[in-house]
Write a structure and sequence with these properties.
Layout (H helix, E strand, L loop, with lengths): L19 H14 L9 E3 L6 H10 L9 E5 L8 H11 L5 E5 L10 H10 L6 H10 L11 H9 L1 H7 L5 H15 L2
Parallel strand pairs: 1-2, 2-3
């Protein structure tokens, strides 16, 4: 997009006038701000997609590596995992004593979805959980929630900016980027 590789996570609005990639960096920066500093640590990112987020972390947070395990970072891919309890057991198994696991996921809320929303969600085989599911299953895996943060308003604000971002993208990229935005909007249930 605009001759840049972008991350595969949702954008997170912080400041007016941000570009799409800046808003994606915001989500990574916010999530990493919740952890002890990763400088000089070994980091494992799960669900890294195209690797742009791992590269961003390496360049901006100076871990000693981003392949070994001290801290586990899992930003917006857990909703694809059909067996999260097994995944959590593996997280517990690979974390070093005192290690930290960060997960940023799209959670379900107790609201009724439209018929179209239910259709799309069922067709996409997404595995969204509520915070109650997370609390219960993390506890079973002997992992505890140290901190919980709801960043929904900032993510929704970012989506209100996507039309401007689309105008700023070079014209030769319009078709693939429009397909990407449509996919993101459907996954988000907007």
């Amino acid at each position: 997009m605009n001759n840049e590789y972008t991350m595969l996570n949702y954008p997170y609005h912080v400041n007016e006038g941000e570009r799409f990639f800046d808003a994606q960096k915001n989500l990574t920066d916010y999530c990493l701000s919740l952890l002890p500093p990763v400088k000089g640590k070994n980091v494992l990112e799960i669900g890294c997609g195209n690797g742009v987020q791992a590269r961003y972390i390496l360049e901006n947070y100076s871990p000693s590596s981003i392949v070994a395990i001290d801290y586990v970072i899992n930003i917006e891919s857990a909703f694809h995992y059909p067996d999260k309890p097994s995944f959590f057991r593996e997280i517990k198994r690979v974390l070093k004593p005192g290690g930290t696991y960060l997960v940023a996921d799209i959670l379900t809320t107790p609201r009724r979805r439209s018929i179209i929303g239910r259709y799309w969600k069922n067709r996409m085989s997404l595995n969204h959980w509520s915070i109650d599911n997370y609390e219960k299953e993390l506890s079973k895996a002997d992992l505890q929630i140290d901190r919980f943060s709801d960043i929904t308003p900032g993510v929704i604000e970012s989506f209100s900016n996507y039309r401007q971002w689309m105008r700023d993208i070079e014209k030769r990229h319009v078709i693939p980027v429009n397909a990407f935005i449509l996919k993101v909007l459907l996954i988000a249930g907007i």
